[in-house]
Amino acid sequence: MVHDIYNSLHNKLYGKLISFQKQIGLIDDAEKDLYHSAILLKNMAIVRKDYPVSLDFMIEELSKGAGKLRPVFQEMLTTYRSGRYDEAFRYFSDSVKSEYAVSFVSVLSKMDKINPFELVSQLDILISVIREERITKAMKQAERRSLIVTAFATASELVCLVNFCVVVVFLDMLSKLRFIY
Predict the structure, then answer these.
(1) Cα 67 → chain centroid
(2) Are 108 and 60 in contact (CB under 8 A)?
(3) 112, 109, 72, 74: which is closest to 94 by C-alpha?
(4) Quick one: pLDDT band at residue 148, thresholds 50, 70, 90?
(5) Which of 16, 30, 68, 129 is most buried, judging by how many CB atoms fall within 10 Å of its CB?
(6) Residue 84 has what DSSP assignment?
(7) How far is Cα 178 from Cα 168, in angstroms, rounded to an integer?
């Protein structure tokens, strides 16, 4: 009976943990893809600073280099080519589950209006913010793992100490009981 309760509880908690990790993984994948897309966009802006290209071409190149965001970029490109520019940008920011999607779309929307040097500086800022956030998340995750390991080590030390105390007290009490009888 206790074993069944344990298995039931374990399966429920394990299922929720896996679900949570999948959700985090999808968000992390989108942010990682967005980060790589920002770097790719910056590199294309630097390489093509002498002869700027259209936003249409840049979105097409971003969709070629994207992983999980490829369908989002392709739908955005289709909407953009049909002349619904604001709807295309809104679609991207709504589809990508990242806090940086709005900033990325803002930079994309200004691409035809500003010179490549300003575009590169804006992308540098966005890239550095995303990088700092990713470093902070990684450090927090490492800190949490360290805390969990420390907690298990402390708990095992406490169990050993309690075991030692119980054995010593029990043996001492057993010898006193033998003395009484």
Answers:
(1) 15
(2) no
(3) 72
(4) very high
(5) 30
(6) -
(7) 15
